[in-house]
Amino acid sequence: MEGENIQNGSNSGTQNSSQNMNQGQGTEQNKHNNNSMQNDQVKNFVSKTDNSTVMAMLSYIGPLVLFPYLMNKDNNDFVKFHAKQGIVLFGIEVILWVVSSMMYLWIFLPIVQLAGLVLSIVGIVNVVQKEKNELPIIGGLAKNLKI
Length: 147
What we know:
- By secondary structure, the chain is mostly helical.
- The chain folds into two domains: 1-48; 51-147, no CATH class.
- The protein is built from six helices and no strands.
- The longest helix has 47 residues, at 2-48.
């Protein structure tokens, strides 16, 4: 009897360790499946986005506005619209930054940066939705910009 208990105990120990190994493999496989799903989602997004969308997004990321402006070889109206707004937005941010630093108005600098960030996010959302909506204040000034 004692020998049987020992054998059963050793068998159950072996079964438990093999179950633990199988569970470990299952978690690794789940991680692999999650990573492959995320990779598939990224690939789907990239395949659905065309060059004009990426270029228009760059228009709202500070000095990167120069890339869409200079690289818009096919004269895409969508890219041009957002590049104009990005140039005006970046120009206003730089001017306000210089003025606030020269006049020791440092208290207004975070407000200017926050406003620029909010307008950039609104612009990027418009690009992702494939819309040509004017940004507040910036849109009116961008209309008059000739490029």
